[in-house]
Amino acid sequence: MSEKLNKKHPRYDSLSARYSLEDAQKNGLLAGTAMIAHGRGEAFDYLIGEQSISSALNATRYAAKLLSSANKPIISVNGNTAVLCGDYLIRCAAIIGCAIEINIFYRTNERITQLTNLLKNKKKVIAKENINIENWAKKVEGVKILGENAKCKILNLEGPRSNCCCEGIYDSDVIFVPLEDGDRCEALVQMGKCVIVVDLNPLSRSAQMANVTIVDDIARVGKNLFESLLSQNDLQDIGPWDNIENINESLRWINERLIQLANEK
Ligand code: PTJ
Asked: Which residue CA neighbors atom 12 of ligand 1 most closely?
C-alpha cells in the first residue's frame, strides 16, 4: 500500500503511518483496537499541528538523559510502536545499551512471536547502517529483544497485561513505555520505577500519571530521542523536571492554536 504514496503528498507522513498500520493489521501484528487508538492520537496531533512542540522536545531530551544515566533502563514496545518506530527505538537501544521488551496489552503468544521476528529482522538491517558510532554493528546486534518468557508480574495489576520479563521491565529502574494504558502506568510508578510515556493526549491517565510525559507522535519521538542520545553534551543543562508544568505547557499550546485557528476562519 505505502509504495503507491507520493513523497510530495502534503499528508505523506500521516498516510504512510496509516498504511503501515493497515498492512501490520492484516499480518496479525496489531491489537484489534490499534486503529482506534491511532485515530485518537491523530485527533490530538491535528490540534498540536503535527509537529514536535518545544515542551515535547524538552521532555524527549530529559528522557534521553534519564535513559543514559539509568542503571537498568528498558524500552517497552507494543504493536503500534513496533510498527511506527521500531527502527528508531532499536537505534536508541543500541546507543543506550539496553534491551527492548515487547509488552503488549492484548497479549497472545502469536503476536509476541510476530513482533519479536519483526524487530529481529529490523536489527539485521540497522546493524548494516553507516552510522558514525564506534562498533555500531556490534551494539545493534547486542540489543536483546525480550518478551517471550514473561515469567514475572507487574505488581497490583490483574490479567495477562501484568506479565513481564524478569530481566526486562520487572528489574528496570527507568522505563520508556509509549502508548501505555493508565492502570499499567500507575502500577509501574507504584513499583518505584521512573516511567517515561509518550502520548499525544496530554490529559490521558498515563500522561498524567507518568514521571515524564512526551506529548508527541511516537514516530517523531523515536527520531528526536535518537538525535538527543547522539548529542549527549546538550543534555547536561536539563532538569530538575516538573512534569505537570510541562504537560500544562502543551495544553497552553493547544489552546492558543485553537484560538488562532478560530480567528483565521
Ligand atoms: O499492541 P497492544 O496490544 O499493546 O495494544 C496497543 C494499543 C495502543 C491498541 C493499546 O495500548 C490501547 O488500547 O491503547 P489506548 O488505551 O487506546 O491508548 C492509546 C493512547 O496512545 C491514546 O491516549 C492515544 O492518544 C495515544 N496515541 C495513539 N497513537 C499515538 C499515540 N500517542 C503517540 N503517538 C501515536 N502515534
From this structure: 37
Ligand 1 center–CA 131 separation, angstroms: 31
**Number of the ligand 1 atom closest to the C-alpha atom of 218:** 34
End-to-end C-alpha distance for the chain, whole angstroms = 35
- Check if 246 has its Cβ closer than 6 Å to any atom of ligand 1: no
Condensed to tens digits (0 to 9), the pLDDT of residues 113-158 reads 999 999 999 999 999 999 999 999 999 999 999 999 999 999 999 8
Q: With contact defined as beta carbons under 8 Å apart, do 218 and 179 qualify?
A: yes
Residue 130 contacts by C-beta under 8 Å, 6 or more apart in sequence? none
pLDDT in tens, 189-211: 999 999 999 999 999 999 999 99
- pLDDT of 67 over the 80 cut: yes
Whose cell is 547502517? That residue is 129
* Predicted model pTM: 0.96
- Strand duo 73-77 + 194-198: pairing: unpaired
Q: What does the buried/exposed string (b/e) look like for 219-249 if buried means 16 or more CB atoms within 10 Å of the residue's CB?
A: bbbbbbbbbbbeeeeebeebeeeebeebbeb
- Separation of alpha carbons 236 and 135, rounded Å: 25
